[in-house]
Amino acid sequence: MRWLLRLVVGLLVLAVLFVGMIFAVSEFGGEVVHLHTVDPSGADHVTHVWVVDDAGFAWLRSGHSDTGWLTRIEAHPDVVVERAGQTLRMHAEPVRDPATRDRIHALMREKYPVADRIISAMRDPNGSVPVKLVPR
Predict the structure, then answer these.
(1) Strand 86-94 vs strand 44-50: parallel, antiparallel, or unpaired?
(2) Inter-axis angle of helices 113-120 and 98-111, to 10 degrees?
């Protein structure tokens, strides 16, 4: 019976370490911006996300198509982004083109090499949605 308790405690410790590692690589793996989105009630939500630049625009990437922040963007595309000490008003445009998705994946992998590999191991890259940020 004691071995079962040790096994359960060991598995819980491993789960906590795994979640902690995911948090660490997502927050400290490179540049993180604060994305402010609004829900239907008008409440502000702040999400920390990675950003890359391509063709004169900043791009975000949702790991899958039903994340909360992407759902809020689709309902209310005008967002605020805090980046490099600046507060920027942007219009967020989800782009579901596979070529664009693959290009943004490549840029994310280049900018966040180790962290992106770890995060990418937990999601289907074909389900990701790049989001183009256009200044307002």
Answers:
(1) unpaired
(2) 130
Q: What is the pTM of this model?
A: 0.80
Q: What backbone torsions phi and psi does residue 111 show, to the nearest 5 degrees? A: -80, -35
Summarised one tens digit per residue, pLDDT across range 48-94 is 999 999 999 999 999 989 999 999 999 999 999 999 999 999 999 99
At 110-133, the pLDDT tens digits run 999 888 888 777 777 788 999 999
Domain 2-135: give its CATH code.
2.30.110.10
User: What is the sign, positive or negative, of the torsion defined by CA atoms of 30, 117, 34, 136?
Assistant: positive
Write phi, then psi, for 46 (nearest 5 degrees).
-110, 125
Residue 85 burial (CB < 10 Å; 0-12/13-18/19+)?
A: exposed
Domain ranges of the chain: 2-135
